[in-house]
């Protein structure tokens, strides 16, 4: 059976550790693994804007020996209504994997349902799991471990980053607090799924309304834009309620002494994060952005290997 990566919990906790170990190995030796030697093509499709995801997948696929085929979905036939499943059936005969940034999670699931090669979520409205692989790699290299650490994400609790922090953090045995104003709470189903996962890994998850409570004692502070792609029309309403959740030096002041700061980028200084915080000594955001490369190379290597192993005929 082919392995896809549509959500953070598509990797079991031990598999997540394998991918993060592989990411560290690839960071130390960029050309240690060449699963795409040939070169084999990987389709990298965008329905939304991107800088980091486009660059890190393109560079990473080339470094794995492959060829990145970057496709603007709007100018493909999908942009004129060709069914997603038909697109999958065409791409999977020529590409080793399909990486897709799109809107609804259901679109990605439709692609995966018809694809015989791994499908990777490069961001949907619901999750951003590749970003979390890079975030976890960054936290692990700064703090030495993941399990038992407290991570507070403050801002839009209903967006893709909040949901991925809940699932991936729980998967890693972390204590995840999502702090958000009323009306912007995490999806109840995602929160319940993360809570069940945390119970198995020794972590915990919580939705907290008071931002000071959420920041107090945290080892990792994270935030994201208050206006995600596709929400531009709501920008005016998405300002005042979020101001108390901004990652300022005051927030950092109540966190753990050696706390680090994450932001998936792009960042809006003076909105969700203060300039002195993102540009200050606690910020790990540039390592975090670099680690997209290593983490995604590890993910692709792992998925290709796992999918090949699982398609081997079973023994007598
Ligand atoms: N963090 C992130 O995914 O950045 P891009 O939108 O630039 O790809
Ligand atoms: N929540 C943001 C993340 C950008 C990488 C968005 O979806 O626009």
TrEMBL record:
Main localization category: cytoplasm
Binding residues annotated for L-ornithine, in chain numbering: 160, 224, 228-229
Record-linked Pfam families: OTCace, OTCace_N
EC number: 2.1.3.3
Superkingdom of this protein's organism: Bacteria
Entries under InterPro entries matching the protein: Asp/Orn_carbamoyltranf_P-bd, Asp/Orn_carbamoylTrfase, Asp/Orn_carbamoylTrfase_sf, Asp_carbamoyltransf_Asp/Orn-bd, Orn/put_carbamltrans, OTCase_ArgI
Signal peptide range: none
Alphabetical list of PANTHER family matching this protein: ORNITHINE CARBAMOYLTRANSFERASE, MITOCHONDRIAL (PTHR45753), ORNITHINE TRANSCARBAMYLASE, MITOCHONDRIAL (PTHR45753:SF3)
Domain annotation Aspartate/ornithine carbamoyltransferase Asp/Orn-binding: ranges: 148-303
Official protein name in the record: Ornithine carbamoyltransferase
GO BP annotations, alphabetical order: citrulline biosynthetic process; L-arginine biosynthetic process via ornithine
Source organism: Phytoactinopolyspora halotolerans
Residues that hold carbamoyl phosphate according to the record: 50-53, 77, 101, 128-131, 264-265, 292
Compartment list: Cytoplasm
UniProt keyword annotation of Cytoplasm present: yes
Protein's pathway: Amino-acid biosynthesis; L-arginine biosynthesis; L-arginine from L-ornithine and carbamoyl phosphate: step 1/3
Family per similarity comment: Belongs to the aspartate/ornithine carbamoyltransferase superfamily. OTCase family.
Enzyme category, top tier: transferase
Keyword Cytoplasm in annotation: yes
A single GO cellular-component term on record: cytoplasm
Keyword field: Cytoplasm, Transferase
The reaction(s) this protein catalyses: carbamoyl phosphate + L-ornithine = L-citrulline + phosphate + H(+)
Gene Ontology molecular function: amino acid binding; ornithine carbamoyltransferase activity
Source organism phylogeny: Bacteria, Bacillati, Actinomycetota, Actinomycetes, Jiangellales
């Amino acid at each position: 059976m082919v392995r896809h990566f549509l959500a953070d919990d598509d990797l079991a906790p031990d598999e997540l550790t394998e991918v993060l170990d592989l990411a560290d190995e690839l960071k130390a030796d960029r050309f240690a693994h060449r699963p795409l030697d040939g070169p084999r093509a990987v389709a990298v499709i965008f329905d939304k804007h991107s800088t980091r995801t486009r660059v890190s997948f393109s560079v990473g696929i080339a470094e794995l020996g492959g060829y990145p085929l970057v496709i603007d979905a709007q100018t493909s036939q999908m942009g004129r209504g060709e069914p997603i499943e038909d697109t999958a059936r065409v791409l999977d005969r020529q590409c080793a994997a399909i990486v897709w940034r799109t809107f609804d999670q259901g679109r990605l699931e439709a692609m995966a349902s018809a694809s015989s090669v791994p499908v990777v979520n490069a961001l949907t409205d619901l999750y951003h799991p590749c970003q979390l692989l890079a975030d976890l790699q960054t936290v692990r290299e700064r703090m030495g471990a993941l399990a038992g650490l407290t991570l507070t994400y403050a801002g839009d609790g209903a967006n893709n980053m909040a949901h991925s922090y809940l699932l991936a953090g729980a998967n890693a045995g972390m204590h995840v607090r999502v702090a958000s104003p009323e009306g912007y709470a995490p999806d109840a189903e995602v929160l319940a799924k993360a809570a069940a996962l945390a119970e198995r890994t020794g972590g915990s998850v919580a939705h907290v309304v008071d931002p000071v409570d959420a920041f107090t004692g945290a080892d990792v502070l994270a935030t994201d834009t208050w206006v995600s792609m596709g929400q531009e029309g709501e920008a005016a309403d998405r300002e005042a309620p979020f101001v108390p959740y901004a990652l300022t030096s005051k927030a950092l002041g109540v966190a753990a002494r050696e706390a680090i700061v994450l932001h998936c980028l792009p960042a809006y200084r003076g909105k969700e994060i203060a300039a002195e915080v993102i540009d200050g000594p606690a910020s790990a955001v540039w390592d975090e952005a670099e680690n997209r490369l290593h983490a995604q190379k590890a993910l692709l290597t792992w998925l290709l290997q796992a999918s090949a192993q699982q398609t081997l005929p079973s023994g007598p």
